[in-house]
Write a structure and sequence with these properties.
- The complex is a heterodimer of chains A (265) and B (287).
- With 265 residues, chain A is mostly helical.
- Helices cover 69% and strands 3% of the residues of chain A.
- In chain A, strands 1-2 form a two-stranded antiparallel ribbon.
- The chains are: A mainly alpha (265), B alpha/beta (287).
């Protein structure tokens, strides 16, 4: 049920993508995402799609997991497709009762679904190939220049690390609570919305009580170790760019530049 | 006596086909007779909790068969009703309390059974009395304002109120003080006598096993390595220590005395038996 793999969970591996510096992956994905949103013709689309597919192949992730990210968001894709297809005015292609499909609508729908699918595929790659702790270290390093503007970079990263750290714990706890209440005959899926909401109380009350207790324990544990954020902290595993990182950043930037240049051709 | 739980070649694998695949139980075959006090021991991660979750259908076998009260747990329809006859007390059950009052929380199970309000009240009162809580005070107490020990009792009452034919307790005494442990075990024994229920106890406490259990199963890394009476099991001390378990304290003491050359029995299980042996020993040396 809740066990097994959740969406975007880190899958251990030893591919080139797994070994890249987390900052490279964040920057690379941002560049790829902008490329995917920015392409304006089929050449641009090909470039962005090629980049995405290459990244997926290089990651050596099982296809099931990659497709899983698309499958979990299929509803979004379908609704976007239908809205685009039906609501774009233009040359009529077909009429289904009150609904009209135009030629332009079909094109727009296919285009937006392709964009979204590529975005979803690429967006999950950093979390799929990077342990959460490393990923937040990378994010902290990227936003740390903003510290001069008063952005608490370390604290933000710390909060993110903690939140990520507790997701599996909470999932596990939720599973235990669900099992325990089901052992007393609780049903979590039946009835009207009001009854359904009420049937979730036996799950959420213990879960929140547990989360608060855990947060309190953690705060005490950190304080008793004299934890102070930010200033002068060093890392056990310092982030370091390798040659591969420069190549990957170079390639993604080249694709981004190419896609933008193609808009003006 | 007939078997109430029959397990044939049970294997359970978590997240099969993913990088996280773990074989938690490996071809376990086990028979548990009706009305027996059965203990399951094994070091942390040996698969005890996974095993007992098969007994009320929360988990189903990856391979093999589990029959509980004559019902094959692989049968989806029948599995859904298994909770009515198989009560499962989880580890740290006090963390699953959610209602505003202890009474309402204990009543959760009986209400789900579709009983009348009068029957529910009767069952709740009986369950609360069984664990030594005052039923009248319980309708006013919020579970969140009680001590850990009292909350544990309330949570266990919530399962007893189902009046299960099989009561499974997963490390019920972990974290309780010695007196609380003894009381809880007495309550469980009392419930067994009154209802003729089968008790399955998962525990790390060897004294508890020696004192309460009639049969013991020993798990190690997902495999069943021994099964028998406590005396049989605890006579295999070397094998137990090899898999990270220990003997009850009285048995350990007797073994130490034997090592010092004293003529004592080493198949002693309880404090009372140890006392007898020591009295004999002292009598001999004093005279």
């Amino acid at each position: 049920m809740l066990s097994g793999i959740s969406l975007g969970q880190y899958i251990p591996g030893d591919s080139l993508l797994h070994r890249l510096d987390p900052r490279t992956k964040v920057i690379g994905v941002l560049a790829a995402a902008v490329s995917i949103l920015a392409f304006a013709n089929w050449q641009g689309f090909l470039l962005a799609a090629l980049l995405t597919l290459t990244a997926l192949l290089v990651s050596k992730l099982p296809p099931g997991i990659i497709l899983g990210s698309l499958k979990s968001l299929w509803l979004l894709l379908v609704i976007t497709f239908l809205l685009q297809a039906f609501l774009t005015p233009g040359t009529l292609l077909a009429v289904l009762g009150p609904l009209k499909i135009s030629r332009e609508g079909m094109f727009a729908a296919v285009e937006i679904v392709l964009r979204l699918a590529l975005l979803i595929l690429i967006a999950f790659l950093p979390t799929l190939t990077t342990p959460p702790i490393k990923l937040t270290a990378g994010l902290e390093s990227i936003i740390s220049p903003l510290r001069r503007l008063g952005v608490p970079a370390h604290e933000l990263a710390m909060m993110m690390t903690l939140a990520l750290r507790f997701i599996p714990t909470l999932l596990q706890e939720a599973e235990v609570v669900i099992s325990a209440q089901r052992s007393r005959g609780a049903g979590f899926t039946t009835g009207s919305p009001a009854r359904w909401a009420r049937s979730l109380l036996p799950l959420f009350v213990p879960l929140f009580a547990g989360a608060l207790r855990r947060a309190n324990d953690l705060a005490v544990a950190m304080e008793s170790r004299c934890y102070r954020g930010g200033a002068n902290r060093t890392r056990m595993n310092a982030l370091k760019f390798s040659a591969a990182d420069y190549v990957v950043i170079g390639v993604t930037m080249a694709v981004l530049a190419g896609v933008i240049a193609l808009r003006f051709v | 006596m007939s078997s109430i739980i029959e397990i044939v070649q049970l294997t359970h694998i978590y997240s099969p086909g993913t990088p996280f695949q773990v074989t938690s139980l490996d071809s376990i075959s086990l028979d548990i007779k009706k009305g027996v006090f059965f203990a399951i021991i094994g070091s942390t991660g040996s698969g005890k909790s996974t095993l007992v979750r098969h007994f009320n259908g929360l988990l189903t076998p990856t391979a093999g068969k589990v029959r509980v009260c004559g019902i094959d747990t692989a049968d989806k329809r029948q599995r859904r009703n298994l909770w009515r006859s198989v009560g499962l007390v989880f580890q740290q059950p006090e963390q699953q309390l959610f209602e505003e009052t202890v009474f309402a929380d204990v009543a959760f199970g009986p209400r789900n059974m579709g009983l009348t309000e009068a029957e529910v009240t009767e069952r709740v009162h009986e369950a609360l009395r069984l664990v030594g809580l005052d039923p009248l005070a319980a309708s006013r107490m919020s579970p969140f304002h009680l001590s850990g020990g009292v909350r544990r009792k309330a949570a266990i009452a919530g399962v007893l109120a189902l009046r299960p034919q099989i009561l499974i307790l997963d490390e019920p005494t972990a974290g309780l003080d010695p007196q609380g442990k003894r009381q809880l075990m007495e309550h469980v024994e009392e419930f067994r006598r009154r209802e003729g229920a089968t008790i399955i106890l998962v525990t790390h406490d060897m004294e508890e096993v020696a004192l309460m259990a009639e049969r013991v199963a020993v798990l190690n890394r997902g495999r069943l390595v021994m099964e028998g009476s406590p005396r049989e099991i605890f006579s295999r001390a070397a094998e137990l220590t090899a898999i990270g378990l220990d003997l009850p304290a009285p048995a350990r003491l007797m073994r130490q005395l034997r090592l010092l050359g004293k003529p004592v029995r080493t198949d002693v299980l309880t404090v009372a038996e140890a006392e007898e042996e020591i009295a004999v020993l002292l009598g001999e040396t004093l005279c």
